[in-house]
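Hi R.,

Here are the chain sequences for the assembly we discussed:
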Amino acid sequence: MPRLTLKGLGKAYGPLKVVNDVDLTLEEGEFVSLLGPSGCGKTTTLRMIAGFIEPTEGSISMNGEVLSAPGAVLPPERRRMSMIFQSYAIWPNMTVAENVGFGLKLQKLPSAEVKSRIGRILEVVKMSHLADRYPSELSGGQQQRVALARAIVVQPSVLLLDEPLSNLDANLREEMRFEIRRLHDEFRITTVYVTHDQSEAMATADRIAVMNAGRIEQVDAPHLIYTRPRTRFVAAFIGRTNLLEGRLANGEIGLDGFALRAAQLGGAPPDSARPILLSVRPQSMALHRTQPAARDGYPLLPATVAQRTYLGESWDYVVHPRESGLQLRVTAPPLQVHEVGETVWLEFDPQQIAVVN
Amino acid sequence: MQGISRRGLLASAAIIGSGGAAMRAAAQDLPAHERALYEAAKREGQVTWYSGQQSAETSEAVGRAFGERYPGVHVNVVRSTSQVAFQRLSQDIRAGVAQCDVFSSVDYSHSTFLKRQGRLMAYTPQNAAGLLEFARKAGDPDGQFHVFYIGVHLLSRHTGQVPAAEAPKSWQDLLDPKWRGKMAVGHPGFSGAIGAWAVLMRKMYGWEYFTKLEKNRPQIGRSSIDPVTALNAGERSIGVAVPSATALLSISRGNPQELIYPTDGTVVVPSPSCIQKNAPHPNAAKLFMEFATGPEYFRVTRKYFSESLRGDVPPPEGAKPLESIKIIMPTPQEIETGVTEVKEQWRDTFGI
Amino acid sequence: MTDSAAILPKPAALEARRPGLLRRLRYLEPSNLLWVLLVATLLFLVAVPIGKLLVVSFEEQGTGAFTLSNYATAYGRVRYLEALGNSLMLGALSSFFSVIFAVPMAWAVSRTDMPGKGFTWAMVMGAFIMPPYLGAVGWILLAGPNSGFLNQAWTWLTGIESPLVNVYSFAGLALVIALHSFPLIFIFVKSALDLISSEMEDAANILGAGTWTAMRKVTLPLVWPAVLGGIIVVFLETVALFGTPAIIGIPARINVVTTQLWQFFEYPVRVEVAAAYAMPLLLITIGMIAVQKLLLARKGFVSQTGKGGERRPIRLGGWRWAVLGYCVFVGALSVLMPLVVLLQASFAKAWGRGLSLANLTLDNYAYLLFRHEMALTSIWNTLWFSAASATAAVIIAVLVAYIVARRLVPFGSALGFLAMAPFVIPGIVMAIGFYAAYAAPPVALYGTALIIILAFTARFLPIAFANSSAAVRAVHPEMEEASRILGGGRLLTIRRITAPLISRSLIGGWLIVFIVASRELSAAVFLVGPRTRTMSVLLYDLSEAGNFEVLAAFGGLLLAITLILVAIGMKLAGRDFMLRRN
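And here is the predicted structure of the full complex:
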């Protein structure tokens, strides 16, 4: 099985470690997204995979063959990969067909085959009618499709994408997001996709590797990254959440002003007495105007509405539980209107609360 | 224009041949000694002539005439002022590169210096036997340099701006404040002739002559020819130490000038030419020496009003016979020590 | 990829014995060898001549022993020091005049609704391409104190005998130089003005400042760095200029550094003293750059880089005609008037006799073309030297620019520095450095075409480099990475992707180098041999005797050649290729 393996990979510029001890393995045909804020080292990692940057530590190998190690970097042109760039990097001096055929010609394929493969891939990306256009005559989305076609047509061992949608407007971005996933489902090319946009990563990737400050914080399927964040960073970075510090003792997690039973929480229940961090998503709580009937294991607290913001699809309330110093963000449907200063009942759903550490 | 006159000063000889002789002498018509050299020179193909003597136009005409007489041998005419020509040669020597075959300047000391340094080739052209005696004697007895040009330098006036009656008559007259802002002169740092003239003026009148001249603010060009063009343009009205040949050529073309032969002496500067020992085209260089001492050269330069130094070629039209006027001539020794001195003095006095 | 040095190719025998090395060769980029070659070339072209100049200035002539006497000689005479002072004053005055000419024109073209912008452009362009020594000849014809057309007209109009303007004066010299240097400031200032958003002026207007106040208090201060940069370039150009001071300065009795340097080359050639005397030029240059850094470090000029905001022309109303008048005035002084008198002189028997049928002749041209064999040779020399230099400079420049922009080697910026260094080395100093380093054996290049081509290449490398650098930077690195990841090697990528993308800019750069090389005098005058004289040197030789008719005709030929090239350039590289600032 072709496997792309990053082992202890690191890149330092002087004392500054941009990428630090990154371990990651991609199975054949897998789609992994590197997700993280800008400056987290995800693009550097991608460019090390491509061979544009030499690592200072660790190695990158493909099927056991080392591609990159400190002092020994196989040039990008010998890696049989392909890449889609943030700027698309469509060559303005070539037509669409010439752009797409460039890699095939470098492989010295017979011209008839080059021609038929260009034709086929342009059909796949729905660009056949524009084969003889120059890039300056194309829209942003069309250029993006050319970039996709150019990268896929060579049947690379690995496809690398560097923030490919960041220059598109919102609607087009959504469309292209599905397009990328569709092409992946069709060709099953091993793919590394760098983005800072979590919804992009969620929509496309089989697994997401969340990066922060040069390290991989967590690698998991998208829904697990969201529901079972394993670090404070992942919990805070993916979606919005309330991070609550508590203390575990005797199967109960003591929080400021109330407690939760550990056994009820999602994920593996912690076993020993220690400080603990909980991620409480805004939608894992409900607000009630009057005190509802208590349900077993669903803690219920009286609270005051401190702030509110209407977001269109929902209300975003900040509530302040009585006898507690906490400030919690809670999401409510648009029709559920509370005034600032109003007293409400706050109900927790323990199933949706994740223990972070 | 005055008719052709003879000069007693320059030992007379019968005029042989005519000025209208065929310009294009076919190779087989050449005298035996020239033909032998020509054959050798043809293999070299060219000859490079650094010259500060004749005007650019005359020098080019000489080069062309040479090429016509000896087809297949091309003259690279590098015309500049004498001091710049010598500067170029010095740069060649300093760089250890041989580029120059024949070097001609108005500054006698250039050739004597090169001779002392052992940089010259001794060659006495057979045609030199036909030069006037004084020219023959002005050359090097060892045959390392020869004189086939004399500079004749004098005054000229703009006929429209200075009536003959008011014109200066002598070098001394130039110190009169009425010529303030009217004169033009060359520069001894560039022109060899102006160097010789300055040496003579200093000898006759002391350096005060120039400190006084400076007060009249002459316009300083580089070449001694520059004042001629300044007068043509009407920029200045008195040309100082201008070469008679260029002035006469200019007058013949209708420019409003007239020569003035100074009562205290017209400056005559015998100007040597030499072949470099390391000349890249030695045979062509010798052939050029033969040509330049022979009648053909003077027939050509005569048309540009240069003095003829051969008895078989008449002097140019319009020039006063030199025997009829007072001549002053520097000695080689005076030039050798004097020119370097006056260059420095000039720069101190005139600031340039 | 910084592993180049360790894995350069080794002899085959070695590989056979050490299979491990072969494996490592897989990681080699073959292009690395080229960079080594390039470093050597830059050292040869730039570092060695200048280093040699420095060394020679401490050497005794003949023996080569260490001495300080060259400096004692070079600064031991009041006259030599005066020349230095004159150069500094001349530089300052020319810069001043250039600012007066350029800044209002740049403002008018960039910010206002002045009519006739195309005309103004053409004038600036004309002033830029006319060789300064030709302009000097033109101004001698115009403003010679007695015969100049302007003074004659003045006397005819007013009856006053004393001249209106005298070109043979310090101010005259500075003015003539400024008339051909001001385009540099114009280009700098205009491109800076182009970047300033109208909102900057609007903000001043809304607070109560009128058009003029806004211009004085807001717009102009914002482009101060550009003005300062322009002033420094003009100052350095002026101090290093040889032709104009030689043609005007000698009759005006003004000795400057360059004419004094020339004197040190009189017999005996004192390269050592010349080298010592050239050192202040280098120090001044370094000093000026330092001053610029210091002045600009203090204030923020952020808005220059700001791209946002619309730019709309200021409506000048009736004033626009006055502003246009000023542009026409400068254009007339710098281009139209000198050009007219030069043309007149080139077709005249004696230019002082003015325009009349009797005075009309084609003989000046005929003389140059048919009876002056060096003239044709020099035209040919000029063409092919310039073409060779432009080609060499552009090739070196684009490779260096590429290395620097793509950070291919450690200390790449040092390469860029070397390529830019000749910008601050006066041409005449460069030529003396070349003479000192390469004239004599063992290199023995004196009098060859090669030494001139090399000197021109080195001298104009910065122009080519600035041009190439901008062109390369405009190509997004991802354009190349896209090719490499698809299997294209570095060199294939340069050939197939980068080169086609930058070719238009490079053609423009090539032509600019060609044009400035074709009129270069100060670098050529010390290096030419009898068969390698260029048009500029022959023109200088012709100017000794003051034969302005032939000079003008030769200048006419030079201008005709230049204009043809400019036309080609506009066709191939865009209308504004010469005045673009990268």
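Residues 1-19, 302-308 of chain C have pLDDT under 50 and may be disordered. Chain C is about 70% helix and 0% strand.

Let me know if anything looks off.

Best,
T.
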